[in-house]
Automatic annotation (TrEMBL):
It is a multi-pass membrane protein. The lineage of its organism: Bacteria, Pseudomonadati, Pseudomonadota, Alphaproteobacteria, Hyphomicrobiales. Coiled coil: none annotated. Belongs to the GntP permease family. This is Gluconate transporter. GO terms for molecular function: gluconate transmembrane transporter activity. Keywords: Cell membrane, Membrane, Transmembrane, Transmembrane helix, Transport. It comes from the Bacteria. Pfam families: GntP_permease. The chain crosses the membrane at residues 6-25, 32-51, 63-83, 104-129, 149-168, 189-210, 245-269, 281-302, 322-339, 360-384, 396-417, 438-461. It is found in: Cell membrane.
Length: 465
């Protein structure tokens, strides 16, 4: 390790510290501004020529948005169609009819696992709140459950949505890591699905059973009445009947199935076969999400008598809430490109080779620190991915899909008051700060640590890609 490496590492550490200060101190800059300022500072201190530095920022932001932004926007559209078509309500009715009190948390975790595939954590929670509140309200009235029925029902949902958000594409975090590290999408998705299961089990139903008797959470009555009224309206006054559960599940899972199809084809056929090329096209995240949106639009709306104008308005409305996420992703891409072009990643490569640091643990740790300190899982993922991208591309024995998954898991750790999701859970369920910490913060920490454990276990096995 040379003095140049030490200078670059100190510059990167100073950049991360500056990023944290700009976001969480009294300045409280928007993450996009903080990322751009940090990118400029790191590039200048690292000695990059001004012209090259500006080109790195532009290229990094553009490339990241091109690889991730379109897929994230399509995911938001798909989530809006599924919610408006009543797919969530269909799953709610099935759960209420088929489950017992003991099996209810497992059914709720399963429902959130499926619904959470195409949706952001915050979007998925908002979509599922009517389901959570309606199920918990009936449970509260009909059973002798000790503690809060809303915690008993809500904890598994929070765990499942968090696990899917941090581990499985097409969510923006895993997708950003995949694009930055040039990891195989199908392999990362397979690893993510398998790792998510024990994380959801431990952080969801099992932890929920433990914590429920200790909390007396109940949402505000006006909020409960609002969701109850909305549910009754959707059942009684809908212009079109809700689609069947099977059709709703197909529409929900189609993008994930197309991506998984490519992963399976790569394992079963030669790399240069026509089948692999065909599945590679339809299984690309952009094409898979586009086909999913088109299928849902036709099957759930237009074919059932829906008009095109309301559909277009709904799709337009769906992308407005994610503009902030896309801007942060662009800023993170700029920061990542500056770190790479300045040579910081190569310095980290030299250090990891000298001290035999595990890239998987290093990726989890960097992502965790950035996410906890800045309040943005996206910042954690893009920062860690950018720092470790040269290591993944160096030809060293690094499993890129597992590194992407490790970074995604790190971004989930201890979601607290500087995260938007923390406040969404707290206010939706009428929790105190302590109650919110005992739920979402601990849940996501459990999911994060179990995910890391699964990554290290997978690393002992032959790689998928």
């Amino acid at each position: 390790m040379t003095s140049v490496d030490l200078h670059l590492l100190a510059t990167a550490a100073g950049g991360v510290l500056l990023l944290v200060v700009l976001i969480v101190s009294r300045t409280r800059l928007h993450p996009l501004l903080a990322l751009l300022i940090t990118s400029l500072g790191v590039g200048l201190v690292a000695g990059m020529p001004v012209g090259r530095l500006l080109k790195s920022i532009e290229t990094g932001a553009g490339n990241t948005l091109g690889a991730v932004g379109l897929v994230v926007a399509l995911g938001a559209m798909l989530g809006k169609i599924l919610a408006d078509a009543g797919v969530t309500e269909s799953i709610s009715d099935l759960i209420l009819r088929r489950t017992t009190v003991r099996s209810l948390p497992w059914a709720m975790a399963g429902a959130a696992f499926v619904i959470g595939i195409p949706m952001f954590f915050e979007v998925g929670l908002v979509v599922l709140l009517p389901l959570i509140f309606s199920v918990a309200r009936k449970l509260e009235a009909s059973s002798g459950l000790r503690g809060s029925a809303y915690v008993y029902v809500g904890v598994p949902v929070i765990a499942a949505l968090a696990a899917m958000h941090g581990m499985v594409p097409p969510h923006p975090g895993p997708l950003t890591a995949i694009a930055t590290l040039n990891a195989n999408v199908g392999a990362t998705m397979l690893y993510g699905f398998v790792a998510a299961v024990p994380a959801i089990v431990l952080g969801g139903p099992l932890y929920g059973i433990l914590v429920t008797p200790r909390l007396s959470v109940r949402p505000d009555q006006a909020l409960l009445d609002q969701f109850a009224a909305r549910r009754a309206s959707s059942e009684g006054g809908a212009a079109h009947p809700r689609p069947g559960l099977g059709l709703g599940l197909v529409a929900t899972l189609l993008p994930a199935l197309l991506m998984l199809l490519h992963a399976v084809a790569e394992l079963a056929f030669p790399k240069d076969s026509a089948v692999v090329h065909a599945t590679g096209f339809i299984g690309h995240p952009l094409i898979a999400m586009l086909l999913g949106v088109l299928f849902a639009s036709v099957a759930l709306v237009l074919a059932r008598g829906g008009a095109s104008e309301p559909l277009r308005n709904a799709l337009s409305a769906s992308v407005k809430p994610i503009a902030n996420v896309l801007l942060i992703i662009a800023g993170g891409g700029a920061f990542q490109r500056v770190l790479t072009d300045a040579g910081v990643g190569n310095a980290i490569l030299h250090v990891s080779q000298q001290f035999s640091l595990s890239p998987l643990i290093l990726g989890w740790f960097i992502s965790m620190l950035l996410s906890v300190s800045t309040g943005s899982a996206t910042v954690g993922i893009v920062g860690a991915s950018g720092l470790l991208a040269p290591l993944a591309a160096s030809g060293a024995a690094v499993n890129a899909p597992l590194l992407a998954l490790s970074i995604g898991c790190g971004s989930l750790f201890f979601n607290y008051a500087n995260h938007a999701g923390f406040w969404l859970v707290k206010e939706s369920f009428g929790m105190s700060m302590g109650e919110a910490t005992a739920t979402i913060s601990i849940i996501q920490s459990i999911v994060s640590l179990v995910g890391l454990a699964m990554v290290l276990l997978f690393n002992l096995m032959p790689p998928l890609a």
